[in-house]
């Protein structure tokens, strides 16, 4: 990672111009994050003067992305393709992508919708059902375009009604085949029992499904997607490195559940798993900024039309693709861990999946930019995360040498 500093224009934290105030909940110091500023005034001033204004990092990948199809796909794909080299494409379309043949077709649709000259690579996934066969896993492995299988507990989230109801029964032969074929299982880690409190669903899933699954099939590679709790961090840390990992979204790093109710009900920060309390957010920030190889970038960018978010029964999902990289950088900067950013965004993911790291670079400049209020598409509009606010880190392609 290259870091460029510009001492003449560097401002100390309290001198930064306030732009349109983004209501981030400023992280208080997570327990394991070490700040490298000295308490001696002279040294501290020096450190302030060397705050980076520009970072050059290996191009990141997004290990959890919803692209949808049709007009929405065309509208959102350029935002991911601009910043990310590859992305794991989630299969929860209507109807879901349950076969390799359909994954191959969907991949073609994505490639066709890419902006000219883009080298973005969609890494396809299959949607696990009670009827998925071990044969399908062999086909997936052979295809060279399917990289994982997604477990949605039936009823857990958007378009999950065809998901799994019987993981340790009907699905077991498939999971055993995945372990043999080294195809990772990507997990939406929430139980769907209506008697379990919404805020406890991840923990109960870990205790009743995930921990027993890891015990039963220790060779199966598992990614716990979009983790939201200290319990998930503890679980991931307790497993063998390289076997169980986790993706982390910008919203679960920057927001706690108060954001859902700040000044009124806020549909655009409603996602699943739902935002949790502050102590959980701090645990996740601490985990990802520690430099651990078990965590990697997965935006869970999940576009829904404005009218389907702002209504009496709004959809779960936050559209973060255009802002995600700026937001992750902010998180690492505020934790004093910018030196750990590149491993999280660009190394840990491909290393876990056994894929090469990207070779191209992307530049992040400290240069305020305004998030558009909405993105229009052929039949509606999508409101991005932090709509209309000003963010500090602007990602762009590397300058020509
Ligand atoms: N995260 C969300 O709230 N929604 C996702 C599905 C998912 O990953 O849960 C979606 O597809 O809209």
Q: How does this structure look, described?
A:
With 401 residues, the protein is α/β, with parallel strands linked by helices. It has a single domain, classed as Metal-dependent hydrolases (TIM Barrel, Alpha-Beta Barrel), CATH 3.20.20. Helices cover 31% and strands 17% of the residues. The protein has helices spanning 41-49, 70-83, 100-113, 134-143, 172-181, 201-216, 230-238, 250-254, 278-288, 306-309, 324-334, 341-353; strands at 2-5, 52-58, 62-65, 86-89, 121-127, 146-151, 185-187, 222-224, 244-248, 295-297, 361-370, 375-377, 380-382, 390-397. The strands form three sheets. Strands 3-4-5-6-7-8-9-10 form an eight-stranded parallel beta sheet. α4 packs parallel to α5. The longest helix has 16 residues, at 201-216. The two termini are 16 Å apart. 45% of the residues are buried. Residues 7-48 have low confidence and may be disordered. The structure holds N-carbamoyl-L-aspartate. N-carbamoyl-L-aspartate binds next to loops. InterPro entries: Amidohydro-rel, DHOdimr, Dihydroorotase_CS, Metal_Hydrolase. It catalyses: (S)-dihydroorotate + H2O = N-carbamoyl-L-aspartate + H(+). Pathway: Pyrimidine metabolism; UMP biosynthesis via de novo pathway; (S)-dihydroorotate from bicarbonate: step 3/3.
Briefly characterize the structure.
This protein has twelve helices and 14 strands.
């Amino acid at each position: 990672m290259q870091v460029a500093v510009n001492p003449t224009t560097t401002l100390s934290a309290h001198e930064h111009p306030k732009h349109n105030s983004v209501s981030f909940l400023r992280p208080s110091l997570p327990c394991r994050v070490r700040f490298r500023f000295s308490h001696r005034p002279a040294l501290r001033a020096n450190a302030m003067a060397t705050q980076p204004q520009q970072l050059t990092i290996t191009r990141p990948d997004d290990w959890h992305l919803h692209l949808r199809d049709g007009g929405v796909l065309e509208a959102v794909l350029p935002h991911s393709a601009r910043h990310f080299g590859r992305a794991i494409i989630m299969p929860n379309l209507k109807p879901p992508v349950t076969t390799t043949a359909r994954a191959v077709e969907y991949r073609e649709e994505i490639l066709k919708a890419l902006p000219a000259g883009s080298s973005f690579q969609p890494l396809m996934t299959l949607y696990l059902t009670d009827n998925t066969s071990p044969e399908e896993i062999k086909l997936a492995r052979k295809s060279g375009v399917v990289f994982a299988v997604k477990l949605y507990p039936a009823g857990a989230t958007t378009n999950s009604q065809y998901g799994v109801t019987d993981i340790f029964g009907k699905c077991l032969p498939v999971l055993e085949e995945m372990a043999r074929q080294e195809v990772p299982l990507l997990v939406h880690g929430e139980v769907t029992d209506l008697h379990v409190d919404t805020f406890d669903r991840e923990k109960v899933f870990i205790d009743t499904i995930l921990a027993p699954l890891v015990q039963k099939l220790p060779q199966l590679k598992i990614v716990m997607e979009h983790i939201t709790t200290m319990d998930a961090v503890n679980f991931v840390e307790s497993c063998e490195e390289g076997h169980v990992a986790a993706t982390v979204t910008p919203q679960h790093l920057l927001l706690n559940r108060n954001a859902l109710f700040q000044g009124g009900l806020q549909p655009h920060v409603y996602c699943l798993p739902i935002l949790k309390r502050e102590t959980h957010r701090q645990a996740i920030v601490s985990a990802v900024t520690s430099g651990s190889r078990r965590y990697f970038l997965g935006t869970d960018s999940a576009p829904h039309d404005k009218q389907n978010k702002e209504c009496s029964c709004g959809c779960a999902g936050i559209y973060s693709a255009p802002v995600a990289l700026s937001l992750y950088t902010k998180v690492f900067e505020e934790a004093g861990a910018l030196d750990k950013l590149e491993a999280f965004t660009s190394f840990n993911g491909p290393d876990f999946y056994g894929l090469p790291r990207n070779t191209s670079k992307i530049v992040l400049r400290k240069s305020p930019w305004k998030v558009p209020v909405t993105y229009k598409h052929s039949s509606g509009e999508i409101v991005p995360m932090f709509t209309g606010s000003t963010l500090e880190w602007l990602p762009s392609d590397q300058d020509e040498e």
